[in-house]
Amino acid sequence: MRCDFSDADFTGANLEMVRAAFSWFVRAKIVDANLQEGKFSTVNFTGATMKGNVLRFAIFPDSTFDQCTGCPTDW
Question: What is the CA radius of gyration of the chain?
């Protein structure tokens, strides 16, 4: 799913089991969201903010986390 979610606000969103391959979350706000089992393959999180999310079994292979606050760079 090649989507551009730049500057989007995903506060409290349910993105469980999302398949967001090749999507852009540039400067997106992802706070207290459910990302459980999400597949974020080759996703651009440049400048995004992530805090308090459910990340159980979520994967982020080949994703970009430049200047991302709270991103799971050690997933």
Answer: 10
What is the four-CA torsion angle of 42, 46, 52, 57, rounded to 10 degrees?
10
The C-alpha atoms of residue 73 and residue 13 are separated, in whole angstroms, by 21
Q: What's the gap between Cα 74 and its chain centre? A: 14
* Domains located in the chain, CATH noted: 1-69 (2.160.20.80)
Rounded to two decimals, the pTM is 0.91
Neighbours of 23 (CB within 10 A): 22
User: Any idea what the Cα angle at residue 40 is, between residues 36 and 43, rounded to 5°?
Assistant: 145
Query: Looking at the predicted structure, is the pLDDT value of residue 1 above 80?
Result: no
